[in-house]
Amino acid sequence: MTGNNNNNNPITFVTSTVGNGVGGVAKTAGGIVGATGRGVGQTVTGVTGSAGKPVGDALQALGNGVEGGAKSVAEGVEDAGQGKKSVFQK
Fold first, then answer.
1. Contact assessment for residue 70 and residue 29, using Cβ atoms and an 8 Å cutoff
2. How many angstroms from the chain centroid is the CA of residue 7?
3. Helices and strands per DSSP (H, E), number in the chain
4. Do 67 and 34 touch, CB atoms closer than 8 A?
């Protein structure tokens, strides 16, 4: 039986490997930025008390946002590398 079997396609292997690698790096970088933002925000709040709490909270939220955005982009890159359709394609 013949058909389109992408399991043995070297192009699919390369794009999947590259996609997974780039996605992993993006998730790692996003996690580092997110953890740093949360840590700095907690430090600012801890050192300044209630006066600095809005700034500390903003830094924590910024770190969380960057981490979430990086994770979303990384998952999109991994999906593209695996040949999965985008949510924007019909």
1. yes
2. 26
3. 2, 0
4. yes
Q: How far apart are CA 18 and CA 6, in angstroms?
A: 16
d(CA 31, CA 23): 12
Distance, in Å, from the CA atom of 69 to the CA atom of 16, rounded to the nearest integer, reads 21
C-alpha dist (Å) from residue 18 to 22, 23, 47, 68: 6, 8, 43, 21
Name the token pair of 19: 């996609």
**27 to each of 15, 31, 57, 62, how far by Cα in Å?**
18, 6, 23, 16
Spatial distance between the Cα atoms of 54 and 7, rounded to a whole number of angstroms: 52
Tens-place pLDDT, residues 11-62: 777 778 888 888 889 999 999 999 999 999 999 999 999 999 999 999 999 9
How far apart are the C-alpha atoms of 82 and 60, rounded to whole Å? 33
Nearest alpha-carbon partner for 86 in 20, 69, 77: 77
